[in-house]
Amino acid sequence: MYRALRGKTIFITGASRGIGKAIALRAAQDGANIVIAAKTAEPNPKLPGTIYTAAKEIEAAGGKCLPCIVDIRYEDQVRKAVQAAVDKFGGIDVLVNNASAINLTGTLETGMKKYDLMMSINGRGTYLCSHVCLPYLLKSKNPHILNISPPLSMKSKWFKNHVAYTKAKYGMSMCALGMSEEFKSEGVAVNCLWPKTMIYTAAVANLMGGESSRSYSRKPDVMSDAAYIILCKDSRSYTGNFAIDEEVLKKNGVTDMDQYAYVPGNRLQLDFFLDLDEKELDLGASGSGGVGPDRVFQQIKGALNKELVSGVGGVFQFNLTGKDGGSWYVDLKNGSGSVGKGAASDPQCILTMDSEDFIKMFAGELKSTAAYMAGKLKIKGNMGLAMKLEKLTERTKSKNASVCTVEAAGGKCLPCIVDICYEDQVRKAVQDAVDKFGGIDVLVNNASAISLTGTLETGMKKYDLLNNINGRGTYLCSRVCLPHLLKSKNPHILNISLPLNMNSKWFKDHVAHTFSKYGMSMCALGMAKEFKSEGVAVNCLWPKKGIYTAAVAYIGGDGAIKHCRKPEIMSDAAYVILTKDSRSYTGNFAVDEEVLKQNGVTDMDHYAHVPGNRLAPCRFLEPDPDGTDIESLGVGGPDRVFQQIKGALSKELVSEVGSVLQFNVTGKDGGSWYVDLKNGSGSVGKGAASDPQCILTMNSEDFIKMFAGELKSTAAYMAGKLKIKGNMGLAMKLEKLTERTKSKL
């Protein structure tokens, strides 16, 4: 029998148990080399299995195994494990990013410690492992990266109630979306795999509070069999896919899905993040969006803390009737609280209601007092404690310039030195604002970091900076301000971030930056839904054209100003949004020009630095079909351009630039050319450079426009027309070369 994975080295994170171990065992049957990268070296009473017990099972199944104690939050541990794998097995052919952290709690209940844990394991850990493994995967004959993560559905329901978890999990999927495009030409397949139904594992049992979920779940084998099929495919022909286990199996001739069920014939629980027809949801389809009582008690468990216990001080027993009924207890009297299935030993309050009404109550669709008055909630015992139930439902309900300039303009100003990477600094600034002004009505999340570099060029220090400021900083500031915003009459959060466009071109070549920036937008998508009933508006605003600021000048030089607008267009659009009724305008991804036009502003030219000039489109927005963006007039072929470049060379230019550039020009009359602006008086030639510091790739028509002065190199880069690999600082000096040659063309 042909064994496709025989001798292949497979690096799997989180493979000491569950889905990761199942994938390892399936590959081991082919005689694969398995590297287990996981934290569990000692057995845990709640989560049985270690990397060593898993290694024995893998070798018994026919594979070779290298167990490595690895916490994927730490780069040194990942690099050590990868090097150990290469030393032992000679390379790496497959990376399975399986390790994950989950916490299904709302924004106010998810502190930064939990947020950081999920982001550092899910999104960052996946990026880190991919970043470190890629140099070896590039040497493999059939390299695969498989992320155990969901399809990217931008429906707010998947963010509502657990923005942090969804952002973290989607980070894994965005890595695949971008890297699949980035490394497609090198033949590295990057795909995602997600279960259609709940998969029962020890971790799920622990999270769900018992083994009850087993009856409506499948075994991990359904995922391992699907993963095996994907990893055996030709990496050059199967990449960039968001696969579902059942669909993969059915397409490959597997028709008996019942074999994967723990209880064949039982209805199955649909997993998170899948937009399937209601009739496909086999268990818990009634009530609030398919959430069963078990899932609600899981959310209650995640919301417990000493503060809540102190505020309530009682033990509740819930007797639920109807579909999926049963008894559960919630201890809000002892320690930090607890939740469990079954009757409480000494309940102060027993509450009886139908399971559908129970779900609605904890979904915020039915107040507990209203349920009681309508006879839907029966209470036995301490009525005073029962009235404190609101505290629990509120915690868990599934809500489906400088000071002188500001004051001279007529406002009051409080300047605060804040690095939004640090929670203590944010909390101090917010408290100072409340002390001085009495509250907070509006939060504008504008701070941002940018680095448009590829996966191999973006180290973890740069990755962390991007994510700590953009995604995490936005979440942190929102979380700290929200208790005060909830007291405002017209509260707004406005994130200066972009529409969520899942086209891979916006991820390719700068996965880290796009994910971090989209993190701001995902905060808005989820929080808008989460806090809609409280009247907190959460929106995004993004410019249609390039905005010239000091930061833009730093990246691209003063030349960009001719093709940009002033920041006032964004401030005018923001003003329009922030003066709207917060209850009627929320969850929008607004574009500055569109906001202004909808409010009667027709003259956009007064926002341009040079009225009448063609404008550079802003990144992440599709270019105008009406021709208002920078366009081509044509000046001849690439060869002629390089002739003109050659005539413009001088020692002065070499001294100013000091690098060797390689141009890979695609399309009509394409090819490779080098421009040596490092040695002697410079030189130009056809073919690849021997040691380029910077490689620039673009279409021949855009290349000609750029050197004709019709398209700024910075604008080309921001519009995705110019791809840069290597020294970004040197690439930014390209303006010096184009300025020298455009008059001749």
UniProtKB/TrEMBL annotation:
Keywords: Mitochondrion, NADP, Oxidoreductase, Peroxisome. One of its GO terms (cellular component) is mitochondrion. It is found in: Mitochondrion; Peroxisome. One of its GO terms (molecular function) is oxidoreductase activity. Gene3D superfamilies: NAD(P)-binding Rossmann-like Domain, SCP2 sterol-binding domain. Residues 302-392, 648-737 form the SCP2 domain. It comes from the Eukaryota. NCBIfam families: PRK08278.1. Belongs to the short-chain dehydrogenases/reductases (SDR) family. This is Hydroxysteroid dehydrogenase-like protein 2.
